[in-house]
């Protein structure tokens, strides 16, 4: 009986998670280009809130961490801390070329590298910066992969 | 237990990850009850070392690196850099290229000011205005995409000119877009000057007098809202600004309302300029040839970014790579004005005051030395670099 209840609960949780993922955004050294495109996905033309995606203020309430930019030495510890504050299960989306490879900032003395060098990444969205449609597509792909 | 007589200091830390601003910055506000008595900022979370990085890349590669100093005002960075390089090489871009450069600058100013209007309204809890202004901002984003192919980093500049051209179809789209935006902007001006609830958050909040603004070196719309008559487009016209001049917009109150009004009135100026530019676009070539190796020399180039004066210092040693690139961005000049005007206001007003200067972290995070009253140290570039390396070890 207990096993059955647990199974049902898991199903309900997955259903809820796919239908209403809460996201948190952290800029670990980006040029702002990706950040304004992420904001644009929230505003009327693209409006991701219709899919239940909501930008959250606190890492403790978030399911998805949306990262932009290469990781600088200063923000590395902060990025790890935010990741560790998020409750399980958690997913990371790296937005932009810099988050994938360091982009144009490769080799700068204060840049550690891409996001996957610091925390595990689930979805990469390429582009400099990616269009809002691409960002929405990336998040949808992430949600698809959660389907049991 | 004895009751404490002396009031204790209470510090509210904000950041670097916080819901109000989308970029990392750490602030500490000392409060007494609700009133802020002291404010400090810690920046540098997005310091990437681009100036040093620029020395390892060629002049052409640097153009694309410098465009990514800031994603919001990417065109002006590339513009200031290429104007400097052209001055060093002793060439001048053709008139049509200069006009297209000014056109993209003004379109970028429209996108940046509408973006700011939305973000500042969001900080004040007025999300309707945020959503409306960002919806209308998509119009100018579409125009930028039509003429350059990208929504944010347009890459319009090359050394010696531009690589995009305007045809009649695009010019028509631009005219239509400007008509739509002008109508919407009239509505926004009405909202920020007449809406009682919103005026409660902006009128007489964050007041900076002319003397303060002058002393603290406030520039751009932040300074102009306090009556500082400074605008590079007027003082030393670059590109086509001498043929298509811009009228200076200033205000005397220096509060948040004045900053809203100045930026919105600058939008009108930009609409007028964009229309004039597409109507009277000079014909001709788009580029001139620039040598791969830039002759030895030093140059300073100044342009007016949406946030204020942007200054580039370039030094060449005659090779295909720059010897030194120094960037001074407008947000950095405006920070001290925020920390001073914040004192004496309620904690709830802080997000609005912070947003009032239109802060941009990614472009101002570079090395700064602070001269305190008790100890003041002077460090040259080499010392600073060494200090940075030691500090991060």
Could you say what the CATH topology of chain A is called?
Rossmann fold
SSE pattern of chain B, N- to C-terminal:
EEEHHHHHEEHHHHHHEEEHHHH
Shape of chain A from CA axes?
A: globular
> How many distinct folded domains of chain B?
1
CATH architecture field of chain B: Orthogonal Bundle
Q: For this entry, what is the oligomeric state of its chains?
A: heterodimer
The major pleated sheet of chain A works out as:
5 strands, parallel
Helix count of chain A, per DSSP?
5
What does the secondary structure layout of this molecule look like, with pairings?
The complex is a heterodimer of chains A (148) and B (393).
Chain A: H1 2-19, E1 22-27, H2 33-42, E2 54-55, E3 64-68, E4 71-72, H3 73-85, E5 91-95, H4 97-101, E6 111-113, E7 123-125, H5 132-146
Parallel strand pairs in A: 1-2, 1-3, 3-5, 5-7
Antiparallel strand pairs in A: 4-6
Helix pairs in contact in A: 2-5
Chain B: E1 10-14, E2 26-32, E3 35-42, H1 50-55, H2 59-67, H3 74-89, H4 95-123, H5 127-148, E4 157-158, E5 161-162, H6 168-194, H7 196-202, H8 210-216, H9 220-224, H10 232-235, H11 256-279, E6 297-305, E7 308-316, E8 322-328, H12 330-342, H13 350-356, H14 361-364, H15 381-392
């Amino acid at each position: 009986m207990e096993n059955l209840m647990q199974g049902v609960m898991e199903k309900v949780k997955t259903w809820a998670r796919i239908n209403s993922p809460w996201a948190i955004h952290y800029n670990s050294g980006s040029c702002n280009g990706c950040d304004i495109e992420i904001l644009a996905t929230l505003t009327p033309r693209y409006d991701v809130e219709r899919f239940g995606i909501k930008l959250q203020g606190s890492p403790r309430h978030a399911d998805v961490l949306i990262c932009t930019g290469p990781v600088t030495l200063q923000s590395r510890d902060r990025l790890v801390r935010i990741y560790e504050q998020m409750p399980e299960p958690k997913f990371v989306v790296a937005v932009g070329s810099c988050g994938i490879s360091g982009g144009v900032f490769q080799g700068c003395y204060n840049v550690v590298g891409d996001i996957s060098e610091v925390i595990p990444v689930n979805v990469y969205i390429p582009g400099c910066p990616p269009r809002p449609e691409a960002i929405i597509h990336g998040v949808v792909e992430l949600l698809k992969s959660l389907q049991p | 237990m004895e009751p404490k007589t002396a009031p204790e200091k209470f510090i509210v830390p904000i950041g670097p990850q916080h819901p109000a601003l989308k970029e990392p910055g750490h602030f500490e506000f000392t409060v007494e009850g609700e009133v802020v008595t002291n404010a400090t900022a810690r920046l540098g979370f997005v310091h990437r070392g681009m100036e040093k990085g620029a020395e390892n890349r060629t002049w052409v590669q640097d153009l694309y690196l410098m465009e990514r100093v800031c994603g919001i005002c990417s065109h002006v960075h590339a513009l200031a850099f290429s104007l400097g390089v052209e001055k060093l090489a002793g060439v001048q871009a053709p008139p049509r290229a200069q006009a297209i450069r000014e056109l993209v600058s003004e379109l970028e100013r429209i996108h940046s000011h509408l973006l700011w209007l939305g973000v500042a309204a969001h900080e004040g809890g007025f999300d309707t205005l945020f959503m409306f202004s960002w919806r209308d901002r998509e119009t100018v984003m579409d125009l930028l995409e039509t003429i350059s192919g990208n929504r944010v980093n347009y890459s319009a500049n090359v050394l010696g000119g531009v690589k995009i051209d305007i045809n009649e179809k695009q010019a028509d789209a631009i005219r239509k877009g400007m008509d739509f935006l002008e109508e919407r902007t009239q509505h926004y001006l009405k909202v920020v000057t007449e809406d009682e609830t919103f005026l409660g958050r902006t009128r007489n909040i964050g007041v900076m007098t002319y003397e303060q603004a002058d002393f603290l070196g406030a520039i751009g719309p932040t300074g102009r809202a306090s009556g500082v008559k400074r605008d590079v487009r007027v003082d030393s016209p670059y590109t086509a600004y001498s043929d298509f001049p811009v009228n200076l917009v200033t205000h005397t109150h220096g509060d948040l309302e004045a900053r809203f009004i100045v930026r919105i009135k600058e939008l009108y100026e930009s609409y007028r300029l964009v229309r004039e530019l597409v109507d009277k676009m000079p014909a001709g070539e788009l580029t001139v040839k620039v040598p791969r190796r830039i002759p030895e020399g030093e140059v300073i180039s100044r342009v007016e970014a949406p946030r204020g004066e942007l200054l580039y210092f370039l030094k060449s040693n005659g090779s295909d790579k720059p010897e030194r690139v120094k960037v001074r961005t407008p947000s950095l000049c405006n920070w001290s004005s925020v920390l001073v005007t914040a004192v004496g206001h309620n904690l709830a007003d802080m997000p609005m005051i912070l947003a009032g200067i239109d802060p941009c972290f990614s472009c101002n995070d570079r090395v700064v030395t602070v001269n305190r009253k008790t100890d003041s140290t002077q460090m040259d570039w080499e010392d600073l670099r060494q200090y940075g390396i030691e500090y991060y070890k």
